[in-house]
């Protein structure tokens, strides 16, 4: 039951995304016009310290008018490797420069509409470099006990699906 993208035309484009209209052939031979949003990759990183606390940001998302805990994240710039982007974003948003980062997981948060890929990384060491350059990104940054993550997600305190998936994977890796 594979759908086939026969052609795409750009309808709108800016530096953040591109909206395309695709001519899609369905398995039964019919055609469907389908909008596709093309996005740059996103990279995210956090650190778990020796006390099994994870570094998170408490922030407001105006689009959904919701508050929640997140991992520092941002777009991967042209020519940048996702792990380097994740480290850069973590330092800019938290003031903590991570040591070596390990891949955690990659997710496609809305693959029925976008081609976005979110790459998550984690490490076990970080150095405080000072107040975050992008302090406006969050209201606060805190070290949260990793053991609390599943209950936080269940209560809706981590509303972003990719963030919840990354934190659950980290919880599994560290605490079983």
Automatic annotation (TrEMBL):
Residues 38-166 form the Nudix hydrolase domain. It holds the Pfam family NUDIX. The keyword 4Fe-4S does not apply. PROSITE patterns: NUDIX (PS51462), NUDIX_BOX (PS00893). InterPro entries: NUDIX_hydrolase_CS, NUDIX_hydrolase_dom. Keywords: Hydrolase. Its cofactor is Mg(2+). This is NUDIX domain-containing protein.
């Amino acid at each position: 039951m594979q759908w086939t993208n026969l052609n795409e035309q750009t309808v709108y484009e800016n530096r953040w995304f591109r909206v395309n209209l695709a001519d899609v052939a369905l398995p039964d031979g019919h055609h469907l016009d389908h909008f596709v949003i093309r996005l740059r990759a996103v990279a995210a990183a956090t650190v778990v310290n020796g006390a099994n606390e994870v570094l998170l940001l408490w922030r407001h998302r105006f689009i959904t008018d919701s508050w929640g805990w997140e991992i520092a994240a941002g777009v991967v710039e042209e020519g940048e490797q996702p792990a380097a982007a994740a480290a850069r974003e973590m330092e800019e948003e938290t003031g903590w420069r991570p040591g070596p980062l390990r891949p955690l997981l990659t997710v496609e948060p809305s693959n029925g509409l976008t081609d976005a890929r979110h790459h998550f990384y984690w490490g076990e060491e970080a150095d405080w470099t000072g107040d975050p350059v992008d302090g406006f990104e969050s209201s606060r940054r805190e070290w949260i006990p990793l053991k609390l993550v599943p209950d936080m997600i269940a209560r809706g305190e981590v509303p972003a699906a990719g963030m919840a998936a990354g934190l659950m994977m980290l919880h599994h890796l560290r605490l079983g």
